[in-house]
Amino acid sequence: WREVIDAAVPHGLAPLSGSSSGVGAVGYTLGGGMGHLARRHGFAADHVRAVDLVTATGDRTRVTAGSDPELFWALRGGQGGFGIATAIEIDLFPVHAFHGGAMIFTGPAVADVLHAFAAWAPSLPEHVTTSVALLRMPPVDDVPPPLRGVVSLALRFGSTGTAEEAGALLAPIRRAGGAPVLDSVGTMSFAAVDGIHMDPPDPLPAVFRGGLLSGMPGDLVERLLAVAGPDVEVPLAMVELRLMGGALGRPAAVPNAVAGREGAFALSVVAPAPPPLAEVAPVVSDGVVAALAPWSTGTSLVNFAGHGVAAESIWRPDVLDRLRRTKAAADPLNLFGGPLADVPAGAR
Questions:
Q1: What is the DSSP-derived secondary structure letter of residue 29?
Q2: CATH number of the domain enclosing 8
Q3: Over the stretch 268-279, which tens digit does the pLDDT of each residue have?
Q4: What's the domain count of the chain?
Q5: Alpha-carbon distance 26 to 45, whole Å?
Q6: Which of 53, 156, 181, 279 could form a disulfide with 83 if both were Cys (CB 3.0 to 4.6 A apart)?
Q7: Are 219 and 300 part of one and the same domain?
Q8: Measuring CA to CA, which residue among 88, 125, 90 is closest to residue 13?
Q9: Which of the 8 DSSP states describes residue 308?
Q10: Which candidate, 123, 154, 124, places its Cα nearest to that of 137?
Q11: Which pLDDT band holds residue 308 (cuts at 50, 70, 90)?
């Protein structure tokens, strides 16, 4: 996304990119795509105008709502498996000012802010995005001293509103948690939004699990703290809850196969998996997801579902059946593989 952002921002425009500009634009978008403008404008896939595709027969085609409505529906949200997408045409959106950053809390404030977030976040206007993440940072020099070797809570915030409004909106969180140990919230260029989540720039061995939650009641917060909070010794890197709702919960103007519109919050669990932890990481991450299962919708976002997750746990049954029919028509020999085929790649 970095090249798109850098080309768009000088014109007062922004794409529906995600928390890290190093992520590839096409795969992210065709999997749905939920970023800093999502609650106002919806999923990135909702704003795709055309997909340039190499088909299973080797033909090059431009897929639009007019040229092939069924394949266009499936490509936007079905992610891969229908062909090789070589380009996409997307909408950009005016963003003349952006206010965002992260506040990080430690100690007793972790639980206080997490409870406050659960009550506060659903009341936010649609031009605001936010998330919280329980973080376990290693005691190394690259980590800021207040965060080394401790469990912290990062509250991320992004808004296209005014700085004054942002300050007023964040006031309940500051009252609940007191002074954060780190605070980067301020006016920024959209080109600097990577600084909100501060995702690591380099790949790391890890196991990822995800899901969607129907809400964030107090019982869920207590359960989360019991399995991943500061009082628990557990090899996790991050447990994150992202607020959904707003335009994410509404159908796209041109219908598509995007999963997850029913979610109130998106759950992501990351466990480090270097060789000593390779067998432990799946057990630990699955344990967090299982602990929060009473509040699960039973579905996931494609891009946040995690490794090896069955398609049945992502899409609703009716959407999945339609995707599989479209997959069989577009790629009958299953040359491109993926979770939507009813046979292994190359089996026919």
A1: H
A2: 3.30.465.10
A3: 999 999 998 999
A4: 2
A5: 10
A6: 53
A7: yes
A8: 90
A9: T
A10: 154
A11: confident
